[in-house]
Amino acid sequence: MGANIGTTITAWIVSMGEWASVLKPDFFAPFLVGIGVFIMLFTKSDKKKSIAELLIGFGVLFVGLSFMSEAIVPYKDSPIFSTIFTTLGRNPLLAIVAGTVVTAIIQSSSASVGILQTLATNGIVNWKAAESGELE
Predict the structure, then answer these.
(1) Phi, psi (deg, nearest 5) at residue 133
(2) Domain regions of the chain by residue span
(3) What's the pTM?
């Protein structure tokens, strides 16, 4: 239950960038890491250290998603992405297997959802592709 809630919250936070640029995770990620490090250095409470670790973890996750988003932009118009998502869209079983493999490799459903959201934000996966397997 906790993993599902965590993945949902992470996906929601990643999508906040669509509302305003100040809400983009890569904007406030350095603040999360900084606050987390500050708390870790100056507290003795285990509970506060756990909260600091959470803040640092989210900050690092968002910085990683930002790097990934920037790295994938040059491949936006690559025909290989078009072919892959068209194939996965036409074969739901293959798409489920591919999603499972990606999640198993990176060991994080939050990161998997974040990758998909990053691909969608960059226009590689759109609504039409997600529903029917057809890319524009």
Answers:
(1) 85, 15
(2) 2-132
(3) 0.61
Distance from C-alpha of 89 to C-alpha of 135, rounded to nearest angstrom: 9
Please name the amino acid found at residue 124: I
Confidence of residue 63 (pLDDT cuts 50, 70, 90): confident
Beta-carbon contacts of residue 14 (< 8 Å; ≥ 6 apart): 25, 62, 65, 113, 114, 117, 118
* Dihedral (CA of 25, 62, 132, 134) sign: positive
Q: DSSP for 15-70? A: HGGGT-GGG-HHHHHHHHHHHHHHHHHH---HHHHHHHHHHHHHHHHHHHHHHHHH
What is the pLDDT at residue 135? 47
Report how far apart, in Å, the C-alpha atoms of 51 and of each of 12, 36, 40, 48, 104 are: 20, 8, 9, 5, 26
Query: How many angstroms separate the CA atoms of 77 and 80, rounded?
Result: 9
